[in-house]
Each structure stands twice: as C-alpha cells, then as structure tokens.
C-alpha cells in the first residue's frame, strides 16, 4: 500500500506538470504579443532659423503659436511586415494597443493615422514606396499660376498626417510579451499666409488663394517629399488688414532635412508662387500673383508667409459697373478620391 501511494503521488505530480506546460501544437494562444505605446510629436512647423516659437506675436498673427499644434488623431493603422514579404493590417487607438506577431522572426512596422479625408495613400504594401498625396481640386481661373508650374496637379490642402516606421522589431519567442514605444511624427505642416492691403481692402467680399510649387506627396517611412510639385488651393478669411489663410502642406518638394536625414545641398533651385483672387462687393474680380521663393526657402516645412503693399484701386471698386456677388459666382470643382485599400 505504501508503494502504491508513492506511485500515485508521483503520477499526480507528473500529470500536474504536463497540464501546466503548453505544447505549441495544443496551446490555444501561443502567439507572442507586442505591446505598442504611442507618443505624439505635436509640431506644426520646423525651425530653419526663423525662431517662430520664440518671436511669435499672437496679437499680430491672430492666433497663439501653441494653438496651431495638431492634436491626436482618432485612430491609427498599423501594418506588420514579415520577412517573406507578407503583411497584415490592424488598427489601434491613439494611445496604442497589443498586437500578435509571428513567433521567432523579425518584423517591420509601418504606422499612420487613418482618419483623413483629403489624403490618398498608395503602395502601402511596399514600405519604401508608401506615400501620401492630396486629393484633386480644380479652379478654371488659375491660368497664370498654372503656366508657372506646368504639369502640376491642383489639390486640396492635405489633412494632418502622422507616421512612424520601424525597420526591424527583433524576434519574439512563443508565450513572450514585449513592449515598445513608438513616436508618431507629423508629415503635414501649416503655413499662416497673410495678404496685407495698404488700400481698398474694405471692398473685398470673398477671397481665395493658391500656393504653387509645393510637394505633391510625402513618403511615410522617413518624411521625404516627392520631387513633383503641386498647386494647393484654399479659401481665405477676410481680416481688417486684408486676408489670411491657414494652409496645410507636405512642405517643399525633394526635401529631406535634419529631422529625418541630411539635406541635399545640390537640390535644384525651385520657385514658389502665391496667388490671391478677390471678388469685390461690386462684383469685380481682382487677382494678385507674388513670388515667395525666398520665404519658402527659409521655411520649407510650415511657417509664416506674408505679402504686403497690396491695393484695390478705385477704378476696380467703383459701383458704376459690376453686379451683386453671390456664392454661386465663386464656385469651383472638387474631386475627392476615396483611399484605396491595399491588396
């Protein structure tokens, strides 16, 4: 009896050990988990020597510097890439989440916010080619700027876009949990554009603008902008000094910088054109085109663009000719393309 009791105890101990262990082929959840915590870089412009964050005067600009900082998006897309070239897409909230990964292999991760309306994403299955561009928008009257920037699309300003790319997340073993922190960086920046009139601005009824020569797209993995340029179309607010607009942009084209990689000192000279179209209260139309190449060169990713000395002459604002303006007289065509889900 004593020997039987010993055998029974030994058998029970072995059984408990077997039950406590989990063989890969029998375990219901033996995949490793990767905990992703997200932090956010809330920058609306990059400093190339203008020191806007120090010299900003909210009483002049009409808005606090910090009020221009982009907030967190609603949610984030995350693409998990395996060494064999396959990838899987999932979603998480703006603080992060856990994701399951394949055991014992290295992965790469591409993250970006998906709550955009005026951005088209392409080539997401191939990280080096993954890029964002803005949706099309057309304006028939924009002939002069279009002639200065031939072969450029006319687009909406893009939405705020963040991204992050990890080229390698080291392999995680079965039943292992690991946590990482990922910083999401902005890829879209803001220009405050001021049109200052020295005479006649009280006659302005409506105003809209365009900025030609800006980057057509941005690459998600490193923030590089494309060499192709676009003309960004936008509406303006009427101010006591003239007009103002807050315009989103990917920045200057063909531009790495110190925030992502070294700048290319051999890049070609580029030109940037600022346009303003105003409808006067008498129905007349006045257009202005200004070269702002020097201002963009010093502020390639967000900042303050200002033109002054604009005038509306009496011959244009006279009530002897013209008609009453309506919103219908100010129409333009807008084409918004829906994002394409990668295969």
Briefly, what is this?
The chain is mostly beta strands and 343 residues long. Helix content is 13%, strand content 39%. It has a 7-stranded mixed beta sheet, with no helix packed on it. Strands 9-15-13-18-19 form a 5-stranded mixed beta sheet. The chain has a 4-stranded mixed beta sheet with strand order 16-17-12-20, with no helix packed on it.
Q: What percentage of the residues does DSSP assign to strands (E)?
A: 35-45%
Strand order of the largest sheet: 3-2-5-10-11-1-4
Structural class: mainly beta
Task: Count every beta strand, where a strand is a DSSP E run of 2 or more residues.
Answer: 21
* N-to-C span: 68 Å
Instruction: Tally the helices.
Output: 6
Radius of gyration: 28 Å
Largest sheet: 7 strands, mixed
The average pLDDT is 86
Helix content: 10-25%
| Overall spatial form | elongated
- Low-pLDDT parts are 18-28, 333-343
Would you list the SSEs in sequence order as H and E? HEHHEEEEEEEHEEEEEEEEEEEHEHE
């Amino acid at each position: 009896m004593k020997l039987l009791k010993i055998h029974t105890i030994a058998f029970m101990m072995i059984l408990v050990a077997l039950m406590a262990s989990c063989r890969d082929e029998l375990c219901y959840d033996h995949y490793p988990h990767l905990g992703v915590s997200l932090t956010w870089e809330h920058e609306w412009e990059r400093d190339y020597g203008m020191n806007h964050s120090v010299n900003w005067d909210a009483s002049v600009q009409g808005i606090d510097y910090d009020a221009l900082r982009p907030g967190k998006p609603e949610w984030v897309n995350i693409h998990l890439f395996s060494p064999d070239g396959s990838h899987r897409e999932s979603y998480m909230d703006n603080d992060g989440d856990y994701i399951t990964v394949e055991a014992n292999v290295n992965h790469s991760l591409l993250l970006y916010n998906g709550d955009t309306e005026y951005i088209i994403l392409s080539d997401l299955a191939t990280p080096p080619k993954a890029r964002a561009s803005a949706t099309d928008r057309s304006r028939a009257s924009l002939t002069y700027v279009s002639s200065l920037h031939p072969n450029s699309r006319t687009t909406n300003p893009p939405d705020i876009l963040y991204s992050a790319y990890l080229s390698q997340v080291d392999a995680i073993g079965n039943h292992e949990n690991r946590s990482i922190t990922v910083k999401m960086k902005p890829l879209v920046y803001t220009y405050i554009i001021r049109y200052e009139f020295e005479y006649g601005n009280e006659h302005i009824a409506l105003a809209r603008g365009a900025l030609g020569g800006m980057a057509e797209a941005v690459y998600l993995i490193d923030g590089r902008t494309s060499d192709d340029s676009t003309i960004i179309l936008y509406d303006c607010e009427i101010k006591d000094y003239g007009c103002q607009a807050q315009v989103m942009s990917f920045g200057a084209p063909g531009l790495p910088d110190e925030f992502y990689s070294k700048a290319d000192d051999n890049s070609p000279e580029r030109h940037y054109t600022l346009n303003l179209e105003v409808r006067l209260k008498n129905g007349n139309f006045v257009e202005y085109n200004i070269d702002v190449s020097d201002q963009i060169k010093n502020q390639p990713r967000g900042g303050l663009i200002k033109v002054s000395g604009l005038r509306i002459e009496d011959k244009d604002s006279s009530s002897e000719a013209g008609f009453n303006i309506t919103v219908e007289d100010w129409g333009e065509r807008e084409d918004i393309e829906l994002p394409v889900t990668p295969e």
